[in-house]
Amino acid sequence: MKPYLKELKEFFESTFAHVKTYILIEVIFIIVFGVASSQVKELLSAWTLLIVVSGIVFFITYLERYKFLKKFPISLIESVEQSLELKDIEIERRKSEIENIKINKSKERSSLINDSISDTIVGLNDQTCTLSSKEDTIDEIANKLCDKDVEDGLIQILSPFISEVYTIIQGENSQITVGVYFQKIAQDDWIEKSLPPENPMLIVIKDDNEIKDYIPIDLVENPTMIGDKQILQQHVETCLRNNRYVSSQIDFCGSNFNLVVSPIPYACDENRPSGAMIILLKNNEFPKDFEKIVKIFNRLLTNWMYKYNSCVFNRNSEVYLEFDLSKEGDVNNKIILYNNGRYKITNPTHLVQEVNN
After folding, report:
1. Distance (Å, whole) CA 185 – CA 305
2. Range with top average pLDDT, 20-24, 104-108, 194-198, 212-216
3. How far is CA 347 from the centre of its chain?
4. 308 and 204, same structural domain?
5. Domain that holds residue 8
């Protein structure tokens, strides 16, 4: 571009140098032509000659101006046009690249979300696949997902969601706190030969914001909450009362958060919540599709909670009622009745023989 700029500079410098001369000649011609025209009495006269000479000079002036204008660097204009065209092409190319990057990121994000959901389902199956089979010994019954406490089970089930949460919310620099609240979950510390109690439980499974200790474990049930804890409680209650996704901004523990509370449905009743996932996000906003994503994980949590409760209840069925039918010197002649209605005969062949005798 530098040679063309030099040509353009020289052209304009020459223009400023000649423009005064051209203007002066044109002014003189107009004055002479006007005076001479008014004085012409005969065709052949000095005034007529003056008019002719003035016309010739004016014509020569225009020729010189034409030659001067012809020197205008057209190549510069063509170069600028080509440069602008290349620039437009580059802009379009960059726009296309940016759009492709966005599309690829969106596809990558969708793929990661799908993988997270798939891994969660696999994890759920790994924890619960033995629950539908018929166990024959106490050891087999004990070796189930309810050997883990609720927090460990939740962390294992939601680990795919937690590990990809920054991709899901589209914010690597975000700080997120994730809690899960259950209205009723079976407790594994009951009195023998009684049904295990079902109590509410709030568990924080991820805490970038380090506010876990500030969130009361009885957040929902405690009627004496005040301040920012009461505000958080009200949002959770709104979610549970109306069975709907709640999204808001709140000031909590001295910071501003984007809050999401999403209902966890009952296993066989989508219209009734059994709990909620509570998420506090700082330094970012939730994406538009987050409601649908978290809804899928909540349905998986529903399945897990149902299986967990079943596991805890089935554990107690071994000791509910037992009839000893043994005679002296015999062993393992028993009928065991389970809470779930099943029964087991420990030595059916020998028992049938006794009955026949």
Report:
1. 7
2. 212-216
3. 59
4. yes
5. 2-72
What is residue 143's predicted lDDT score, i.e. its pLDDT? 42
The tally of domains found in the chain comes to: 3
* Interatomic CA distance for residues 121 and 259, integer angstroms: 26
Residues 221 and 163 placed together within one structural domain of the fold = yes
- Residue 317 CA to residue 230 CA, distance in Å, equals 41
The answer on 347 and 312 residing in a single domain is no
345 in the same domain as 311: no
Residue 140 pLDDT exceeds 80: no
The reply to whether 78 falls in a domain is no
Residue 92 lies in a domain: no
Tokens describing residue 73: 């660097």
3-state secondary structure 260-272: EEEEEEECCEEEE
198: Cβ–Cβ under 8 A, 6 or more apart, which residues? Answer: 184, 185, 186, 187, 309
Evaluate whether residue 218 is within a structural domain: yes
Confidence of residue 117 (pLDDT cuts 50, 70, 90): low
Q: How many CB atoms lie within 10 A of CB 250?
A: 16
Nearest CA to 185 out of 315, 305, 339 is that of 305
190-218: b or e for each residue (b if 16 or more CB lie within 10 Å)? eeeeeebeeeebbbbbbbbbebeeebeee
Tokens of 168: 């899901």
> Given CA atoms 312, 315, 319, 323 in this order, what sign does their dihedral have?
positive
Query: Three-state DSSP class for 126?
Result: helix
* pLDDT > 80? residue 205: yes
What are the counts of helices (DSSP H) followed by strands (DSSP E) for the chain? 9, 8
303 and 331 housed in the same domain? no
Q: Angle at the Cα of 302 (from 136 to 312), degrees rounded to 5?
A: 30
Residues 219-257 have pLDDT tens digits of 999 999 999 999 999 999 999 999 999 999 999 999 999
Region 130-139 average pLDDT: 45
CA distance 242 to 339: 35
Asked whether residue 184 is domain-assigned, the answer is: yes
- My answer on whether 299 and 165 are in the same domain is yes
Looking at the structure, tell me whether residues 216 and 279 fall in a common domain: yes
